[in-house]
Amino acid sequence: MPAHFLEAKVVILGSQSVGKTSLVIRYVQKTFSPNCPSTIGASFMATKLVVDGYKIRLQIWDTAGQDRFRPMAPMYYRGATAAILVYDITSSKSFAEIDSWIKELRRTTSDDIVLQIVGNKRDLDHLREVYAEDADAYGKKQLGVDHMLYEVSAKDDEDVDEMFTHVTRKILEKAQEIERRKRNNPNGTVQLDADHDKTQMNNRACCTG
């Protein structure tokens, strides 16, 4: 890992209409559109930030939530440094489907991938079907006691930046851990970023998802 620089691939996963694209657009472009069409396959955005003195470039892959695109998901999460698993707090079904994503990622990706559960549409609290305490307990059970649930609102820009910063910090911590393992095992091979695994796509995001 170059001194004080890291490039990371982040994939956004979850059911259709949970607001994955709105979340990415809010974070990268600082805007919100209430009429985003469904993503076809996946779209890509990149952004740079500084966390704990490190310059970090995030390659953010926003994937389609429709069932017919589910078989394509491995194409996009392969080589990911982190996966953000998004559900809609007004949809218990979308939350239940997080479980299948966790199982799939554990079966098919590196043990070093950072997993983060996020509840979107906090602005619709009056329609809530998924309670934060239940989602938090689930996250801690599945991903460890240090997992921190985030409930955000892409519409109202609530805690979106904070969530992405938290995920980026976890990515940085994992990269540093891998670097330590690499130093302790010089004959092993360790991949610190996902730049080698960029999918050849020109479907760069506008308002798709």
TrEMBL record:
Record-linked SMART domains: RAB (SM00175), RAN (SM00176), RAS (SM00173), RHO (SM00174)
Biased composition (Polar residues): 200-209
Swiss-Prot/TrEMBL keywords: Nucleotide-binding
Pfam families in alphabetical order: Ras
Keyword Nucleotide-binding: yes
Region (Disordered): 180-209
Organism whose genome encodes this protein: Dimargaris cristalligena
Descriptive protein name: Ras-like protein
Residue ranges crossing the lipid bilayer per the database entry: none
Keyword Phosphoprotein carried by entry: no
One Gene Ontology term of the molecular function aspect: GTPase activity
